[in-house]
Amino acid sequence: MSKRKFDDEVLEYTGSGQTVPKDVISVRFHPSVTEVEGHAFEDCYDLREVVLNNGLKKIGIEAFRDCSSLESITLPPAIIEIDQEAFNGCTSLQSINIPSTLTEIGSAAFHNCNNLREVILHEGLQKIGQSAFEGCNSLQSITLPSTLTVVESCAFRYCNNLKKVEFNEGLQKIGRHSFMNCISLQSITIPSSVTEIEGHAFKNCTKLKEVSLNEGLKKIGAMAFDECRKLQSITFPSTLLEIEQYAFYNCSSLRKVVFSINGALQKIGDQAFYQCKLLELINLPSTITEIGQSIFQYCSGLREVVLHEGLQKIEDSAFRDCISLKSISIPSSVNCIGSKVFMGCRGLRECKLNEGIETIGCDTFDACPELDRVIFLNISTRLNNLIESGQQEVGNKIDELHGPVERRGSEVFISTQAIREAERGSALGVPHWVKRPNHWYVVVKPSIVRIARLVEYYEVKEATTLFELALWKAKLNQEEAQPTINRKACRIEVPGPVKNAIMQYLPPIESQPIPQR
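RE: above sequence
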């Protein structure tokens, strides 16, 4: 059958199961038609002109799919529904004006319309469906109306020339993969009405330099900004509760990350900032209780990390190969440090812990050539106070205890060599299929517990002396009105039973049980 010429007879479409010839070129709709039936013009490759009637309300599923010669279509003002894949693959379609009567654009409605350059959306639209404009490579800008609440997954994925997206207040959710691989997108401002940016939303937007997040945002999904290699800074709002895994993975130009110190952030997922090579400073909020696996691994420019009380656990490889990190202080609230956490931190010279730490995983300080010891900060400070007050004996008593934890002056520490020896010793004779014991808890913990108890004992002793001095001073104050004061007569000792009770606050060090597992 020969193809019709453009000037040939125009087909009138009346709906109601009408069969449309595949070589049709021009179509006009009868005034009575309210719906274009699904698949009605699918694969009409020569269709160039469609005149829709004013009373049309719905364009059905795949109605104009793969009409590759269709360059333009005017939607009537009565239209209320464009079903899924209605114009999928209309590769010659250049512009579309969505009327305000339409509340939802169906999934894949304009999928792979490669020449679609202009899309006009009006107030009234509430939802853009899954993959609605995916692969529209010629689309350069889009303005989303304030009535829009949801951009579904993949809605603008692979819109390679999309440079500008204007979001308006009212939008609540940016779906998964919605702007993924929009490699020309340079800047976005997320309105305060958005509560969630789902996973992969802006993944591989390789030219994205500026991202502005507003108060109201609660969650950033997995890989949301993965591979955004031009992104230079990000400031998180105080309303943010969660950053999922890989969220800023390999954002290699990211220099500045600002957390709200008074915010509500509770969780940062594994590898969230993995390989952000230019990142220099991290100040995590006190609301964070756990640092996930490999969060800052390979952040080679990271020089300073500030951790706050409230943090409880640091997972495996969290700061692995952060070669510019020179010092780290672990809060006293942390009771567990995973394996390989600081492995390969070649510039690390100082690490401060507290005696409450119960678990340190294997190889945590491996390949840290500048770090020869780990300091117990809190116990060292307390010991220093005792020594300065004249209680020199406590240092000698600590030296007599022996064990992997050592003292040098008022500094209580364990050498990294001792940690490695403890690791090896705990595994001797243990078959590979048996769960490896916690070397820290079994070997190191008892030593630091003994030292802590000894310091506590001398602190109590110091307290009784101060108590006696306070009583003496009080007596002197009472007698100061007298012409002469017998200072020796004013001296008052703590009564024997009281003193004994205070000194019995701790039993002798040797008799106290050591934690076992």
